[in-house]
Amino acid sequence: MDALKDLVFQKLGAVWQRRWIAILVAWVVCAGGWAGVMMIPNQYESSARLYVDTDAVMAAVLRGVSLDAAPGGGVDIIQRTLLSRPNLQKLISKTDLDLNLTNPGDVDKMINQLASDIRLVPQTANLFTITYRNPSPKVALDVVQNILNAFIESKIGNNRSDMENAQNFLGSQIDNYERQLRDAERRRAEFRTKYIDLLPGDGGGISRYESAQQNVKRLRGTLEDARARQAALTKELANTPQTLVSEAEAVGGGGGGGGPNRAQLLEAERHLAELRLRYTDEYPEVVSTKNLIAAIRAGALNVGDPEAPRAAAPAQPRSRSVPNPTFEQLKVRVVENESNIASLERQVADAEAERSQLEEVARGAPGLQAEYLNLNRDYDVLRRNYEELLGRREQMRIAQAADLEANKVKVQIIDPPQRPRTPVAPKRLVLLSGVLLAGIGAGIVLTLLISEIDSSFQSVDDLRSLGLPVIGGISIITETVSLWRRVFSVGSVVTAMAILCAIYGGLIYRLIRAGVA
User: Fold this and answer.
1) In terms of residue numbers, what domain contains 15?
2) Backbone angles phi, psi at 35, to 5 degrees
3) Would you say the pTM of this structure is higher than 0.85?
4) Is residue 386 part of a domain?
């Protein structure tokens, strides 16, 4: 601790010994620094805040149809648009910035400088601040105002330009797809015309070849049914008598006649014949009709007194034959069915011939179905893309109409740019204070550096550090003279620093009075 204290006092002594060097350095640094600070040109800043949003009602109506008019591109897109080289060139020509241009190289430098000096800062999603600094208040105001105008024009002009470009692109693509679609339709129609018998219909139906196969199968089934029915009719016709025996009244005793029973029997037999044409012998109605016939026949034999046949002499009936109407009907049905079978056989032969012909054509084009599917797939893809492009063109027209007739985009300038009255830079108060501290620090540091490179001995302890015996030290200055000199030295240093601080205070007062601190 004592060693550190001795070192500090030693350094302070070295600085005090060369105090006039430190004061001179401080004066030189402060004078040069303050002069430089006062010569820095003032920077005036102009700013504006604007709010950009999409109309809520119109956005809801046109969502998914029109273009997104909100500044969804963010600050980067807006900044790249506004700070593009053409826009900055227009900005230079509209303001007084072109007065400082002397050669074409200065234009590039100024464009680069403007691109870095103009700041577009987002405060919220839709709130932006545009700021620019320039030594001239008028130029700062003009730059920000022109940037605002360019932004508003770009929101309308860029959208319309983009729409026109998009419409031109869609138009060219629609024309291209229309030509391709027509070629695909022509190839598809030619292919379908050539192989119309082997291809399905447009509505997804079956082809003529498949229809011919189904027709042959159907006709064969119908023919088999007709032949089975013909066999049944032939069998029934063979079992049906051609004539029926009609008995007259008996001659002799016995009384009672069989007229009514005979009529019932004929009617029952006729009904049984009709039923056998439609049903089998096991059908309930057929069985009941057979039982009825048997009952009628049994009743005709037992009419009158049961003992009459034994008591009376047998009567001599008279009988005659009549045509059987059931047989005649069956015969007509057999003839009609034979004609139907002949017609069906002819139809089956024609259908099989047609099917064979179509099979020959199908065997000649094995990849017909695959080729037709490829043609349909290409046609469907072209048609789908074509219809989608047509829909997009309609959406683009609606978007263009909305941009021209509806105020979708709201650009509200919240804080318009104002001509600045006071500079925002440089911060001279801070700079002057920094120069003062830098001057004092430079003087102290310089004296310490000089003391470090000085090879003289400041004290007896420095001599002892050489390792040699030191008898003592003798001072040739008396204590009274040393005290006066110290008082004079301290007064001179205080006066020099007071004058320096007074100059600093005067500069600060001037800045405050001028309002540019």
Assistant:
1) 2-40+430-470+478-514
2) -65, -40
3) no
4) no
